[in-house]
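hiii, so i know i said id send this last week but things got crazy w the move. better late than never?? heres the sequnce for the chain we talked about at the cafe, plus the structure i predicted for it. fair warning i was half asleep when i ran it
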Amino acid sequence: MIRKSVTMGDIARELGVSTVSVSKALTGREGVSEQVRKTIVDKAVEMGYEYTGSKKENARERRNIGIIISEHFITRDAYYSRLYEKTMMMLSDEKQIGMLEIIKRDVEKSLEPPVLMASGQIEGVIVLGQMSVDYLKMLKGYGLPVLYMDFYDDEVVEDAVISDSVFGSGILTNYLIHRGHKDIAFVGSIKSTSSIMDRYIGYYRAMLSAGLAVKDEWRIEDRDEEGEFIELKLPDVMPTAFVCNSDAVAFNLVKRLQSEGYSIPDDISVVAFDNFIYAEMSSPGITTYGVDTDALVRNVIKIMIEKIENKDYTAGRVLVAGTMIERQSVRNLS
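okay and structure toks below
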């Protein structure tokens, strides 16, 4: 009969402590008292636990990394579901353990900490998608490494990995301008997330650089104060083109315009951001600035592991470049 190897999880269950505490004790890392460390080491010897490889190698194989996301992102935006799935797969490839917790709206508002943090199950946390300032402050108070993914916050500053939204939106806007468009609107609630604000800044800068008017009525709100999508209100005087903050919003806009009798792109052109499934599902296909999600996730994982292993490590705000993908949603007016 083959004897099953004793794992850190087995030791944790025997002692009623977390696997993270066992890992720290057996790999010589900080975070547990000497008394707890001795208890864990003694139990490991008693149970016949075998330690192989260097401390660094074993520590890297046993990182428990939390991923928290607000429920409205996971239920309403398939782009964030894709980012989460890709993060989990790439963590697995790196022999890391990813643990997801969806934060409900009432939990976020009442500032209840994630179960993963309060129970000591994780060594670091990735925050996927914008959350309230108060909730981010609460997370920071736990003293664990925190990394923002696909957003940043100017008030609660932490390392962040984001797509280059300003540059990408500028590229899209200039693409329209170079094809003869002068009356260009922007779709997105700029106070909702840092990425939407940055995409508006990219649009705004391109318009000003070209000497074109930026009209208040041509900034179309796409979500409410809770971040939920709302019905798009078309302006009384229509532009010739729209820059949308995401493919999902552009998909809805195209359907709305077509229902109003407009032809895309003969009457109105549309561009977007992300290069997600909605851009290909749309008829016609939507020209978009594609986010390099693989590079985004790779940077997130690399930085998070480094932050866990070195408490003094900082990466700042890391920008990930993308690529524009041309489809059939833009008419050349030149």
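btw The chain is about 40% helix and 15% strand. thought thatd interest u
miss u guys!!
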